[in-house]
Each structure stands twice: as structure tokens, then as C-alpha cells.
Amino acid sequence: MTRILSSLVAFFSITSLFAQTPAGEIPKLVVGITIDQFRGDYLEMFRHKFGNKGFNRLLNGGLVYSNVYYNFPNLNKASSIATIFTGANPSYHGIMAEKRYLIESNREISSFFDDNYLGNFTTEKLSPLPIKVSTIADELKIASGGQSDIFAFAPDASQAFASGGHAASGAFWIEEENGKWATSTFYKGKQPIVDQYNRSGQSLTYTITGTSWRPAIDVNRYDVFPYTRNKYNFQHFFVTDKKGDVRLFKQSPYMNKEVNDMAVRFLEAGTLGKRMNPDFLALTFYAGNYEKALDKNYSVEIQDTYYRLDQELERLLDAIDASVGLKNTLIFVVSTGYFDEQETIPDGMVTSGGDFYPERSQALLNMYLMALYGREQWIRKYYDRQFFFDRKLLEDKKIDIREFQQKAAEFLVQSAGIQDVITSYQMLHGAYNQDVQYYRNGFYKGQSGDLFLRLQPGWRIVDPLSDQNNVRVRNNAVVAPVIFFGNDIKPQKIERTIEATEIAPSVAYRLRIRAPNAAQGNILGELFR
């Protein structure tokens, strides 16, 4: 009886949604905009400095959800964007970070490494195949019988692959070695617009050394933070050792201009949104800190970044309107849901946290395991708040992995700075609670480690061999809105936090195609009212 009632409830819910579907045409173009480290509080603080045709046009004319939530730990640009476009968590799509650890060869590789494909304008061998499930763009390509054009432009390869998916006509990123728009030979189509730009004098390869970043307006107008001590007419050059520093350039608002320039070129070419089936354009912008800013989290640079991003959005929306029409375009804007802090503790201040040294923790744990199981190197690696054990050694010694993990976890959790330790056995076989499920969503069998560490807020990770060196742990949420705009979207402001996994199935439903094959999130009903 319960099963019958559940089926009836599901049937009437779906019927209700179909009744709410707009009678008009489906969009001719979908533009998916992800903004890395975009913050809703900054948006509201800086909004009075914006014009009327960028962020304010989206906020006033769109369906705005107050916040988006990612239900897994250690957010980053790769895992977040993969989640947006697949509608699934890393436990399904398999992308947990920019890089991952290969225990078999004891090396770190890109999460998108693929030895079967070469690069164009890059020496890296990458492909989207490590994404284990389908994306919105993949499902659109299938539904259209291959007729829909799909393009992705992003600062980094992980963002381009995650948003472009497996079926893109092209997914491009800026290569840090040469400043060119790079891609993978996985994508078979040739794109003359990109190739022509790469070979022109306008390419970042030739312009970066002469480019400098200055404030777009009088710095005295950047008055949001009372904590800004250095209100100065900054001038940043993107040069290191007489060469262009593309990595540094990617932290500036000029990276957003590069992405937008390419998007506008494709729109002005007049092919996107002009065929029977919808096309898809995925763009990734940056709204994080600039590492050389004097005031770190409260800098004039972050305010200038948002001011310039508003202008780029205005230019993009105008280009869409001129080429396809905003009414014919479905646009969604979403944040990656995290923010890389650049916290500086004043001299003499004593905080409640401390320093966590992974190398020391690994040595102490291995000594403890030696005392229990014999003098062996039981730990292969500490990587990204995980411990990887030597599984072959454990098998050879016929040691029960569940017991081994549990004893290691019980030892580690007594260490200063460690809030909790969750074992992979717990996540795969244990009794679930909310915390275990949260970590399980970020776990992928065969890639993740044996132990997951939850560090206490305020503690600093000191690991000179890692990108996470001197990162201070913060568990506070970054509030970020999700905006849907265009294509007969009714302007609404919804004070509700939505799941990141709800975006893909909702966009798919609006396109009248299947949701990505691992998407289990709810469809956002307000999109159809």
C-alpha cells in the first residue's frame, strides 16, 4: 500500500509540473555561467556601484534563489562545476578535486588526465572521460541527434571539461605555459574562430607582458570595507622572470574579459541559437582574491574585480540579445560555493587554533601501526586531508582492513586539531549518519583514500609539498545566489537554499530532455510557474 501511495504522489507531482510548463518555445540557446568563488554578500555590498544592465538586470528580471548548497566537503572549482552540470555529487561523477593521487604509481595527476588524447596548444594529455556520468550538455547532444552545438570557455581545463562535458563541439581553457586557448584532441571539431585568435597578435601570448591592471574607477569609490588599510591606485603587472605569468593573470578580472571576448566572438559569428535544436554555451568567470593584493580579503582589488565583472556581464547580455534575443535564451548563473580566504593573523594575536603538520601526523600514525602490526611502512601517502594505506601489504599480511582503518582512526582522532576521522569502510558499509553521508557524497571508490580527516576550524595546515600549505580551516558557508534569466522566466526572489544537484535536472526539464543519468535532485518548481 505504501509503495502504491508513493507512486501516486510522484505521478501527481510530475503531472503538476507538466501543467506548469510554459506553452512557449523551448530556448534556442542555453548559457550556463559559473562564477568561481562568487559571494552573495559581496554582490549585495558592491551592488550600488554597478550599472543597470549587468548583475542588476539579472537580479531584477530573473528568478533568484538566495543560496546554493553543495552537500560534500572540500569544495573546489573542479568538483563544484562537475556537480552543477551533472546534477550529481562526486560519489557519482568521480571529480573530487583539480588533481588526484595515483596510489599505484605514487604520483599526483590532473583529475582529467587521459594518456589516450593529445592536446591542441598544450602538452597536457587530458579528456572529459574521467567524468563518470552524463552532463546537461551531453543529454542535449543526444536529444538533438548530434545537431546542437556546445561550447565551453573557462580559465582552467577542469572547468572547461566539467561544463562542456563529453559531447562538446569544443571545450577551451587558457594554457598557463603559452597563454593560448587550449583544448584536447578528444573533441574532433575544428574551431576556426579559436585557431585564428590563437595565431593573431591579440593572443594573450603576445599581450600579457604589456598588460597591467589598474582600478577601473576612482579607488575612493571602493568604500565598502572599513578594514581596507591600503586604498591605493594599484598597478599589477603579470610578469615573472621577464615572462608572462598566466597563473597570476587568471586571478585578475582580465581573465573574465578573455572568456567573454571568446563568447562574444562566437555569438557574433551568428551560428549559435539559429538552428532547430537549442545550442549550449558554458562560461566560467572568476571572482576570488588576487594573491598580491595588500589587504587580502578586504582589498580594493576584489571590489574592482566585481565592478569589472558587472561590465562583462552587461556586454555578454547585450551580445546575446543582439544575436539570439534574451527571450530566446535561458541563462543561469551559479557560484562554485566556496571562497579561498587569505587570512592574515595580526602579530602578537593568539588564536584558538594551531598548526597541523600532515608529515608529523603520518609519522606518528605509522609508528603506532608498527607497534600493533609490525615494522612496515603501512601508509603510502597523506594527500588532500586523506591517508592512503598500502592495500597490497595489508592483503599480503592478511590483515582485516576494517579493523586496521578503525584502529588508525581511533588513534588519529585523539590528535590536536583533528575533529573527526571517517574511514572508507564506514562510508561504503557502515551505519549512516548525517556526517558520514556528507563525506560519502565526496568519496569515489578507487580514487579516494582510506581515512578522511575533518580538521577543527581555525587550524592551519602546514604542508610545504602541497597547494594547501598554510591554508587555515574554515567551515563557515559562503552564501551565493542562483539566478535564472530570460526565456519567459518570471522575476521572483525566493528566500530558499537550493541544492547544487537541483540545477541540472531543472535546466533539462526546461529543455524537455532527459536529466543527466545520475541526477536525482528535485526539479525547481518556480521555474515553471
Question: Which key features would you list for this structure?
Answer:
single chain, 529 residues, alpha/beta, ten-stranded mixed beta sheet, globular
Describe this structure in words.
With 529 residues, the chain is an alpha/beta fold. Helices cover 33% and strands 19% of the residues. Strands 5-8-7-6-13-1-14-22-2-23 form a ten-stranded mixed sheet, sandwiched between helices. Helix 7 links the parallel strand 6 and strand 7. Helix 4 runs parallel beside helix 7 and helix 11 runs parallel beside helix 12. The chain is globular and about 70 Å long. The two termini are 32 Å apart. The N terminus is likely disordered.
Summarize the structure.
With 529 residues, this protein is of the alpha/beta class. Helix 4 (77-86) runs parallel beside helix 7 (157-164) and helix 11 runs parallel beside helix 12 (300-323).
**Average pLDDT level:** 92
Provide the spatial order of strands within the biggest beta sheet.
5-8-7-6-13-1-14-22-2-23
Helicity range = 25-40%
The fraction of residues assigned to DSSP E strands is: 15-25%
Oligomer: single chain
Poorly predicted segments? 1-23
* Count of runs of 4 or more consecutive helical residues: 18
- State the total count of DSSP E strands: 23
Q: What is the CA-atom radius of gyration, in angstroms? A: 24 Å
Overall geometric form: globular
Strand and helix map with partners:
Blueprint: H1 2-20, E1 29-36, H2 40-46, H3 55-61, E2 63-69, H4 77-86, H5 90-93, E3 99-102, E4 107-110, E5 119-120, H6 136-143, E6 150-154, H7 157-164, E7 170-174, E8 181-184, H8 192-198, H9 204-207, E9 212-213, E10 236-237, E11 239-240, E12 243-244, H10 246-249, H11 253-268, E13 279-286, H12 300-323, E14 329-335, E15 355-356, H13 358-373, E16 379-383, E17 386-389, H14 391-396, H15 401-412, E18 418-423, H16 424-429, H17 434-440, E19 451-455, E20 460-461, E21 471-472, E22 482-485, E23 492-499, H18 503-511
Parallel strand pairs: 1-13, 1-14, 2-23, 6-7, 6-13, 15-20
Antiparallel strand pairs: 2-22, 3-4, 5-8, 7-8, 9-10, 11-12, 14-22, 16-17, 17-19, 18-19, 20-21
